[in-house]
């Protein structure tokens, strides 16, 4: 039984799609298929039901999955335990984050860590919340950052690093642009551009707007915060976004605080292991130091 076969199997089991599994493990789809077929030949059973339009795990595949995850974890812990005998911090470190965090909070943090540990090969990947959790579970990511309360998953450890203010973003020349702070009644007639349901940004919007009288008016949906801000700047409605999304954008957008918006936590997540790799352990410590030294609001004071 080869570890690379188990890695391909886990990716396919998590995505239930050979194409997405291949993307997750950076292989061609044919290679993933071949590795899973080799695993099935070794066990003498089918691990996936391919008879329907949607791929599904067989009962044998369901039984194998937790063992496959544990075997990969043990292999990673063994490598980490051996690496701990070296004084130098080296190896690869894969960091993931939501799109907004990857373009605002994380670049400077990774640059500082890279200067302190030049022998560590850093990778940064943007994904949605589900993709980040799957990346951690599948071993493609070592550490991930997202907005919102961390998930309660036994295999994943997490902590809240900071709180980030949520702002109402208005197009240039909007009737509320001159206000210092917005009130709930100011927003009752406004149209908002939002992300689709299931997205963490949509959850922020729905929770913040839940206190308004009546259901908030939605002009439309866009798949990313960048697209939403572009639409707002073009005069297509307003938006509710984390402050860092606006601070990192050079534009004519008007961002205003709203007492009802509150803030959202920034959470750091990593896969629980008995022994973390030296690179992961050093990075977790560096992140904690970074957020202790900076204000817990964004943008940080100078």
TrEMBL record:
Keywords from the named record: DNA-binding, Transcription, Transcription regulation
PROSITE patterns in UniProt: HTH_LYSR (PS50931)
Name of the protein this chain belongs to: HTH lysR-type domain-containing protein
Entry annotated with the keyword Transcription: yes
Family assignment from sequence similarity: Belongs to the LysR transcriptional regulatory family.
One Pfam family here: LysR_substrate
Presence of the UniProt keyword Transcription in the record: yes
CDD domains: PBP2_LTTR_substrate
Organism (species): Pleomorphomonas diazotrophica
GO MF, one example: transcription cis-regulatory region binding
Gene3D superfamilies reported for this sequence: 3.40.190.290, Winged helix-like DNA-binding domain superfamily/Winged helix DNA-binding domain
Residues in HTH lysR-type domain copies: 1-58
